[in-house]
Amino acid sequence: MERYLRETNPSAVPPPTNIGNITAVRGSVIDAHFPQRLPHIRTLLRTGKDQQIVLEVLTQLDSQRVRAIALTPTAGLARGMPVEDTAAPLMAPVGNSILSRMFDVFGNPIDLLPPPENVEWRSVHHAPPSLSCRSTHSEVFITGIKVIDVLVPLERGGKAGLFGGAGVGKTVLLTEMIHNMVGHHHGVSLFCGIGERCREGEELYREMQDAGVLPGMVMLFGQMNELPGSRFRVGHAALTMAEYFRDDEKRDVLLLIDNIFRFIQAGSEISGLMGQMPSRLGYQPTMGTELAQLEERIANTAAGAITSIQAVYVPADDFTDPAAVHTFSHLSASIVLSRKRASEGLFPAVDPLQSSSKMLTPGIVGERHYHLAQAVRRTLTQYEDLKDIIAMLGLEQLSQEDRKVVLRARRLERFLTQPFYTTGQFSGMAGKTVSLDDALDGCERILNDEFKDYPESALYMIGAIDEAKRQEASHA
């Protein structure tokens, strides 16, 4: 009977169990001996009481020994314990029933609800779509945040990075984008937390629930208290879910990752545990390949698009750090958050001179938008150059023309601030979404000196430019 089943339906017959035994335990790194057959690389192994401890094969040491990294805590493991080869890689659940749910790296629900039904399990390891399958059409993705839509437009199906050191507002900006987009973004939103605080995930879950947008959202978390193996694979699990909605359901996907640096950091920890020689500044020698394997799966195809916005922690505000440099090369837009602007109270603390977008060309955004963005950037650059002179000699020593530039630039800086929905409870200001037309209109009118007689404070933390006129009228 078993032979008949094997010939007619090979998947119906489970492969004979391949049992080995542990030969060495060094923290999260486990060596195992398999006398029958050697498990493949990326295969999961199970061991411990009730097979609770999960390992992933990383290297084959010889014809009978493998070295694996633990994805779960290894307390209680000892030499000689049996280890079972599952003959399968790490799998992620896909299907419509995963919507509105929260998972860990193994696809287990962590929202205290029963496991979803009618799901299909797929390997988290996939090759990126081939060049022939990709779409080459460029389209702007509107966020409702003035400084981003005007100066650093995002690409539908592209990858945008929010770069910044600790405490400059990366997660706040990311959460605000979720709030603005999930409402009018008709596809699926997927949030992947890699090595970040579980408190942020819990707050995000409640906010999305209160906003009524949870039914179109999936969340995955590999928290900072989990092992590096688990944090390293959670991004691949999220992409497997995103690819299902793009390729099978033909829907657009918004993928938000917080924080891609933690993915690189987890890879660095694994590399160190495996005894590999580190490269420059202590990073793993395979960093470029590991990041590319994840990032290149985020792509536009004929079926749909995966648009990704990623927070990128910059160690010690050093943008020459290899982690930041390697991430820059994959992105279509880089939004740089500046500690100096945050200290001045200019939120979102986006540095318009360091941030850049490949979408800001006349052929994509149009002539008016392109020329206005260049005029805004030019004005802010001139102001930056004059700051030293102002600090030494004072504003009065500048020429009449330079003084006008400074006043325009200071008003532009304040107009490009915006109250956020997600910080309303702390700032006491209601959040605002601003259309691209209103944002461009405001910049144009400030550059034309329409607001030169208005105090700078009238333009601070407003939405559309006409609010400044209404505020002044009410004060008068």
TrEMBL record:
It catalyses: ATP + H2O + 4 H(+)(in) = ADP + phosphate + 5 H(+)(out). Residues 156-341 form the AAA+ ATPase domain. Gene3D superfamilies: 2.40.10.170, Bovine Mitochondrial F1-atpase, Atp Synthase Beta Chain, Chain D, domain 3, P-loop containing nucleotide triphosphate hydrolases. Transmembrane segments: none annotated. Its EC number is 7.1.2.2. Pfam families: ATP-synt_ab, ATP-synt_ab_N, ATP-synt_VA_C. InterPro entries: AAA+_ATPase, Alt_ATPase_F1_bsu, ATP-synt_VA_C, ATP_synth_F1_bsu, ATPase_a/bsu_AS, ATPase_alpha/beta_chains, ATPase_F1/V1/A1_a/bsu_N, ATPase_F1/V1/A1_a/bsu_N_sf. Keywords: ATP synthesis, ATP-binding, Cell membrane, CF(1), Hydrogen ion transport, Ion transport, Membrane, Nucleotide-binding, Translocase, Transport. This is ATP synthase subunit beta. It comes from Thiothrix winogradskyi.
